[in-house]
Structures are given as C-alpha cells and as structure tokens.
Design goal:
With 215 residues, this protein is α/β, with parallel strands linked by helices. The protein is 40% helix and 20% strand. It has a seven-stranded parallel β-sheet, sandwiched between helices.
Length: 215
C-alpha cells in the first residue's frame, strides 16, 4: 500500500509539472507576467490586490483560490480587477490544471499581469508550480516574526516577500522586522522585500514601481 501511495503522489506531481509547463507557454505567448501569491489566511493577500486595483494603473487580472466561497474574488472584482474564482473543495493548494482552466476563461491578450491568489496556507502551495514567473510570499505582523524560520520551503522558492500590516507595528512592538529581513536574505540574497500596509498604502509605491518595470 505504501508503494502504491508513493506512485500515485509521484504521478500527480508529474502531471502537475507537465500542466505547469503548458501554462508557462500559454502565458509566454500572451506576454503575461504571472505572480503566485502565497500566505496564511488573513495575511492580507486580497487587501494587497484590492489596493493595487484601486491605486495602480495597469492591465491586471486575478485567479482567486479558496477552499470554499468566492468572497475574495467578489472583493477583488469590486475593486476593479477581473477575477476568476476557484474553489478547491477542500484541497489546500491550487494545481496547474485548476489555474489553466480559470485562465482560459480570461482574455490573456488584454492583461499584462495575472495574479494567482493561492489558498491560504504556508506549506502545501509552496511546492506546486503553477506556471508562474515568480512565487510571492506574504506575511503580516500579527502572525509573528518567526514564519521564515518555520516555513523555509516557501521563502526559499519565493522571489519576493511582503511584510504586510506595517501600520500595526506600534501594536506589536516585539515584532522584529530586522530579524525577518535577515532570515529572508539568509535564504535568498536576492529576495525583494516590500514592507507594506494595504490599509494605509505604506510601502505600496515600491510594489507599483516593480509592476511598472522600474522596481
């Protein structure tokens, strides 16, 4: 039974890799940059995308993954970005085939950036390639400053990290921003770090510069 389980898991991962490669080619042909946002529930992924929709000029769309409900997709659409909701029905991460199905509902020729808001989880989504250009990690002050050390798999794969909810720093005086930045740089010296508040707009300008090609 153990060998059969391993074979099934390996087969599923192989199918995902093949689907991710097909996605990558589809996105490349359309000239779309794809960013896969990964973080815990409540870290602010949706809020970052809402603020981006309101304040940053650009042609954006979002594939929104949730275990259940399309609430986040509805929030994003209300902010002005096209959103394609994906319910996983219990799975703790999106797969490349799920993303392909949602992306095919979009007019990729009409967008420059496709954001994938993955299911809220720091573990499962980190190892699944969806055909994205980069994984983007999101952490927030209320979660504590030990997330990079606890979940290095995600942060070693991510090309950039948001340290979000910086407006709450006075409420969390023990949060060591320097420590988490050092932990990130220890895993990837080229890590791009955004210290942001999607509530006040703090630090979002650097994110917008990146999206405009100047970051």
């Amino acid at each position: 039974m153990a060998k059969e389980k391993i074979d099934v898991e390996e087969s599923a991962r192989k199918r995902n890799v093949e689907a991710a490669d097909r996605n990558r080619e589809m996105f490349r042909r359309a000239g779309v940059t794809v960013l896969n946002l990964i973080g815990s529930p409540g870290c602010g992924k949706t809020s970052i995308l809402e603020y981006t929709a309101r304040e940053c000029e650009g042609r954006f769309a979002v594939v929104v993954g949730d275990v259940k409900t399309a609430l986040d997709a509805e929030r994003i659409e209300a902010s002005g970005i096209i959103a394609a909701p994906l319910e996983t029905g219990g799975t703790c991460h999106l797969t490349a085939e799920m993303v392909r199905g949602a992306a095919q509902e979009l007019d990729l020729d009409e967008i420059d950036y496709l954001f994938i808001e993955n299911v809220g989880n720091l573990v499962c989504p980190s190892t699944f390639d969806l055909g994205e250009d980069e994984k983007v990690a999101v952490v927030s002050l209320p979660e504590g400053d030990d997330k990079v050390r606890k979940y290095p798999s995600l942060f070693s794969r991510a090309g950039m990290t948001f340290i979000n909810k910086m407006d709450l720093l006075d409420a969390f005086p023990d949060y060591d921003v320097g420590r988490i930045k050092s932990d990130l740089r220890g895993l990837r010296s080229d890590m791009r770090i955004f210290q942001t508040s999607a509530k006040t707009g703090q630090g979002m300008g650097r994110w917008f510069e990146y999206l405009r090609g100047g970051g």
